[in-house]
């Protein structure tokens, strides 16, 4: 018996008869949360003139981090702000950061825009990548903290079929910046 079966047998069998019941419950909770967002949005907007824009876009991705703990990443234009929905004009694209050797590769989904309207900028001394794009009815914005400092002169960006790929070279020998303080 593998570890997943043991976990299921001990913890979940009391509450769920089928492993897929857990996923059904999670989807039901997400649907209920969207209904609460929509009701709250309509309640707040009914008091006066409201600005409307594009569709509501919300999604999330769950991955396992290097420490074995789950990482939940949200994307879209619906944010949870102090327990209330916050709808923005700009969508946050789904992005992956892949670090391999002396290179960092950022892959972001920004469909529906022209490549000439995409602006990619490196800030914070080569530690942050900002992606901004604007299309016919879509706007994207994302700030990505890079896992290492990069050389902004080495950056190469390509855009094909709605996918932006930025390749950056790490700065050698400058991983730990700062001033050393002598202990007395």
UniProtKB/TrEMBL annotation:
Signal sequence interval, chain numbering: none
Domain called SHSP: residue spans: 85-184
CDD domains attached to this UniProt entry: ACD_sHsps-like
Domain (CS) ranges: 90-184
Alphabetical list of InterPro entries matching this protein: A-crystallin/Hsp20_dom, CS_dom, HSP20-like_chaperone
Family stated for the protein in its record: Belongs to the small heat shock protein (HSP20) family.
NCBIfam families reported in the protein's UniProt record: Hsp20 (NF041800)
Protein name in UniProt: Heat-shock protein Hsp20
Native organism: Stygiolobus caldivivus
